[in-house]
Amino acid sequence: MVREIAGAAFVLLGAAFLFLGALGILRMPDLFNRMQAGTKATTMGNLLTMIGLGIIEPAWFSKLLLIGLFVLVTNPISSHALARAAHRVGVPMTDLTVTDSLRAKRAAREVES
Q1: Could you give the number of structural domains in the chain?
Q2: Mean pLDDT, the chain, whole residue set
Q3: Burial readout 57-78 (b: 16 or more C-beta within 10 A, e: otherwise)
């Protein structure tokens, strides 16, 4: 009984993170901010949901751990690759963006060349 309640609490917390990630995607001003909100929240939401499922069904825990590690590695890498590609093709940033580190690094490389 306690195991099911604890597992359900983790699943509910994971669902809340997933909901907040979706809300962040809707509310953020540009692609780069949306990508960050979606990636961080969905990574945490997926991990918490899988921990909850592992608590509810202990026989699945090792498989869920492997899936969680895969999500933990691939979500940030894919988000980073997409953001760099979007920056490279010139997707505009919001006017509220203070610094653009990639543009500064690219300009420094062009000066050196």
Answers
A1: 1
A2: 90
A3: eeeebeebeeebeebeeebeee
